[in-house]
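retry 2 of 3: previous attempt timed out while embedding flavin-adenine dinucleotide. Reduced batch size to 1 and resubmitted. Inputs unchanged:
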Amino acid sequence: MSAQRTVLTTPVGIVGGGPAGLMLAHLLGRAGIDSIVVEKRDKNTIYNTHRAGILEADTVRMLTETGVEGRVLTEGHEHEGTVLRLQGESHRIDFQKHVGQSVWLYPQNEVFWDLASARERDGGDIRWSVTDTEVLDLKTGTPKIRFTDATGEDFEVRCEVLIGADGSQGICKWSIPQEERTDNFIQYPFAWFGILADAPPSAPELIYSNSDHGFALISQRSDTVQRMYFQCDPDENVNDWDDERIWDELQRRVDGPDGFTLKRGTIFEKTVLKFRSYVCEPLRYGSLFLVGDAGHTVPPTGAKGLNLAFCDVRVLAPALINFFRMGDNTGLAGYSAMALERVWKAQNFSYWVTNLMHTQPGENPFNQKRRRGEFKAVTGSGRGAAYFAESYTGWPSTSSQHRQDMSTGEPAAAVR
Ligand SMILES: Cc1cc2nc3c(=O)[nH]c(=O)nc-3n(C[C@H](O)[C@H](O)[C@H](O)COP(=O)(O)OP(=O)(O)OC[C@H]3O[C@@H](n4cnc5c(N)ncnc54)[C@H](O)[C@@H]3O)c2cc1C
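retry 2 succeeded.
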């Protein structure tokens, strides 16, 4: 640590420059509210980390209608449905037919790049590659972030509101005293073995497949790069798997009488992703507000994590704008309860679809047959398919949510 700490002041200090932190900084910037974002990784490292791929329609609108970037519409792929496959038999859920919505396949690293570029274009203050982040004085009206920047200089950010957007491995939620928060947590007895491969797409839409051999997800990234996963043991070692063994395992989980065959290619990334569900309650402590994975995580099966992070931002941005423009505290007071309403719906969907599509280790015949009955109740019924379609593409805002512009995150009354 250097001898002197440089003090910076800003209305909003944000820990974490992932999608949640950057989108919030962007919307505040549009409303004329400054912020400082403090991020421990550098831009290229974040850009090269592959994560989410499916964006709900409201997430896409937030990117395109708030002046972030329109690339999602030109480089992303609209998916009007998805395929649920059981024992080699495919059943397509038509999102447009059931709920009139689509999702977009557009990788999270491109979302991140678009947001980081927009912040740079708009003169936003982001400190990349910081170390030793600390948050202090959270119960006061002047919370602080301390950090050391990439050159070794020490800083203290004094703000009025501090945002914990530091993801599931961050520090902010752990700064809430244990007696002031409830950690709702479950762990699943399986994980995903994920690959990225140089190969053409095997299918035009995602395929969620379950067979006697377990679960597989056939997903895409682009015309030349594909993302696929298969259910594995949480302690699986990726080094035990060569390309041929991985492709054979994926293939046997989608094999069926229709002869569907995966298009193979060179695998250039292999990871094991453990499955957890977590919700911190409440999402506020004094001047600290948690958004995105910092406050809650879901297993990736329902493709909800990034979308939920943007949902939090859609609730928090107008609340902050009202607070800073008019001194109106109401939105901030209601933030946690309102954001959690959607979080728990998404938790339920993610938990449900995870258990529907995965084979439990040592699953007994009764449960396996019951699960297959459940699968057919979804795919064989218009109402069952509509429930899946609505949950997957994202629920419309409910009447109990504050009125706000769903795409811009601005409080409707404040801008019109
Ligand atoms: C394999 C995989 C597939 C997924 N698929 C989907 C999908 O299809 N759809 C979907 O919606 N979601 C999906 N998700 C979830 C999605 O990636 C996350 O929900 C999303 O990244 C949350 O964004 P965030 O900004 O809240 O957190 P993050 O993206 O985790 O960003 C938090 C940032 O905070 C930084 N940080 C942490 N600690 C500190 C500190 N002490 N100081 C400074 N900075 C710090 C981190 O470096 C990070 O950049 C998937 C996740 C995985 C892993």
